[in-house]
Design a protein that fits this description.
The chain is an alpha/beta fold and 305 residues long. It folds into two domains: 186 residues, 3-Layer(bba) Sandwich (FAD/NAD(P)-binding domain), CATH 3.50.50; 110 residues, FAD/NAD(P)-binding domain (3-Layer(bba) Sandwich), CATH 3.50.50.60. Helix content is 30%, strand content 27%. It has eight helices and 17 strands. A hairpin with a 5-residue loop joins β13 and β14. The structure holds flavin-adenine dinucleotide. Flavin-adenine dinucleotide binds next to α1 and α8. InterPro entries: FAD/NAD-bd_sf, FAD/NAD-binding_dom, Ferredoxin-NADP_redctase_2.
Length: 305
């Protein structure tokens, strides 16, 4: 007979692991699947995660795994390929060619950052190419900042990084609205009608960005505004999602399908580590209550028969 567990958590970033920690401590049989690196592995040191500022992602995630496992969660290094809802309210989870039955599903699958196609971008991602000053603005404060990327977010990104340095140049051929232009002018942000085509290093230090016009711009920190999309199609196959594939949920992580929950970057692209961890702690009791109601319903059926 196939094994049935209370919860399958998909994804072992901080969101999935904090959900697993809660559920394991609540005595719920919990299997966590993880098929690859967490988004935080792009950096060498995590920031703004209270108690862990400056720690390596490996340290943070190893400790989180150890804690969940210590209370009985099982973690399997496998990609979940598909999840099928069954008539009896259970879910068939297929990972590594082997099926497993689960009463509830927690999707903690994260997101994918869509990097622009410029030279050296993969190598620079998470080090010289920065995504949010909340994470590492402090480390480069008052440096020469260059901002480029997805047009719709540029004015916001430039104004935001301006809080960490007065020296900000936006490189874009995009025409800003009057409101955006006025805000950036008041903040002393320069705009340059050009396109970033590459990153220039001296040794392992970023010194400039290259532009389409051939003029390098000296910089200490390059900030890129990005699009992102859901890292997995599992939500799309199970519940309502938005146009980028992120699960639509209520504040507790419940999706449109009973028994399926989504947390962390899988339903909130702006979630930092602390928010992602909190979403796992929030969903834990909600999943437990769902399991309690399910148990009651099954017992009423047996009693009535
Ligand atoms: C460059 C960069 C720097 C950052 N720096 C910071 C920082 O300093 N501080 C901070 O608070 N936040 C930072 N963040 C944000 C942080 O990475 C996210 O908030 C956090 O990783 C979200 O956690 P999560 O658990 O939701 O997703 P993730 O950590 O991305 O975990 C999702 C997991 O699900 C797995 N997965 C996906 N699909 C499947 C599947 N089908 N089957 C099995 N497993 C699957 C993935 O392999 C991954 O391990 C940074 C982000 C970036 C891009």
């Amino acid at each position: 007979m196939m094994t049935t567990v209370d919860t399958v958590v998909v994804g072992a970033g901080v969101a999935g692991l904090s959900a697993a920690l809660f559920l394991a401590r609540a005595g719920r049989s919990t299997v966590v699947f993880d098929g690859g690196p967490s988004r935080i592995h792009a950096v060498e040191e995590v920031r703004e995660y209270i108690g862990f500022d400056g720690a390596s992602p490996t340290t943070v995630l190893r400790q989180a795994r150890d804690e969940a496992v210590c209370f009985g969660a099982e973690i399997r290094s496998e990609m979940v390929d598909r999840i099928d809802p069954l008539d009896d309210g259970l879910f068939s989870v297929l990972a590594g060619g082997k099926p497993l039955l689960a009463r509830t599903i927690v999707l903690a699958t994260g997101l994918v950052d869509e990097l622009p196609a410029i030279d050296g971008i993969r190598e620079a991602w998470g080090t010289d190419l920065r995504v949010c000053p909340c994470f590492d603005g402090h480390e480069v404060r008052n440096g020469r900042f260059v901002v480029f990327g997805v047009d719709a977010r540029l004015a916001h990104m430039a104004s935001w990084v301006r809080m960490w340095s007065p020296d900000v140049t936006v490189v874009t051929r995009h025409a800003f609205t009057d409101v955006e232009a006025e805000r950036m002018a008041l903040l002393g942000i320069r705009t340059l009608a050009d396109e970033v085509t590459g990153l220039i290093h001296e040794g392992d230090r970023l010194v400039a960005v290259m532009t389409a016009s051939g003029d390098p711009i000296a910089t200490d920190a390059a900030w890129v505004s990005l699009e992102s999309r859901a890292a997995s199609d599992l939500a799309r196959s199970l519940c309502e999602v938005d146009e980028l594939g992120f699960a639509k949920t209520d504040a507790g992580g419940a999706t449109s399908r009973p028994g399926v929950f989504a947390i962390g970057n899988a339903n909130e692209p702006l979630a930092h580590l602390v928010h992602a961890a909190a979403s796992g702690t929030t969903v834990g009791p909600i999943v437990t209550m769902y399991l309690l109601e399910r148990m009651l319903s099954e017992r009423r059926t047996v009693k009535a028969a």
